[in-house]
């Protein structure tokens, strides 16, 4: 059995979250440390620790996260302006909760690359 995470506790309603979407496969809620005017986390209800742990049987639920993101973008009115979707993997990739989650960031123009302030000058 996988170790309980803050996300599994949100799914089980053991801790509160501002949930904006839920279905049988996924849950979306506001990030408590937003990096954009809109910063949502979209998670599968089935726990998968990292991107490295995704199996072929998980393809439908992982793909569903992206469908949920597009649906939320349409519903909240920022689909046409654009948004960023990010999934981090492990410590060096910036993952802090070991239950995969898709970050949906919107509400402002995003620079490219997203890590440009950390690049060394040539």
Automatic annotation (TrEMBL):
Residues 6-115 form the HIT domain. The active site is at 101 (tele-amp-histidine intermediate). InterPro entries: Histidine_triad_CS (IPR019808), Histidine_triad_HIT (IPR001310), HIT-like (IPR011146), HIT-like_sf (IPR036265). A motif (Histidine triad motif) lies at residues 99-103. It comes from the Bacteria. GO terms for molecular function: catalytic activity. It holds the Pfam family HIT. This is HIT (Histidine triad) family protein. The lineage of its organism: Bacteria, Pseudomonadati, Pseudomonadota, Gammaproteobacteria, Alteromonadales.
């Amino acid at each position: 059995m996988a170790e309980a995470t803050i996300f599994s506790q949100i799914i089980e309603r053991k801790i509160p979250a501002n949930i904006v979407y839920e279905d049988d496969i996924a849950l979306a809620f506001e990030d408590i440390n937003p990096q954009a005017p809109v910063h949502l986390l979209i998670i599968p209800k089935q726990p998968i620790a990292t991107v490295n742990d995704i199996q072929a049987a998980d393809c439908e639920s992982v793909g569903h996260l992206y469908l949920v993101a597009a649906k939320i973008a349409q519903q909240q009115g920022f689909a046409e302006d654009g948004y960023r979707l990010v999934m981090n993997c492990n410590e060096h990739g910036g993952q802090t909760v070991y239950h995969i989650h898709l970050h949906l960031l919107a509400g402002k123009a995003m620079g490219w690359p997203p890590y440009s302030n950390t690049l060394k000058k040539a």
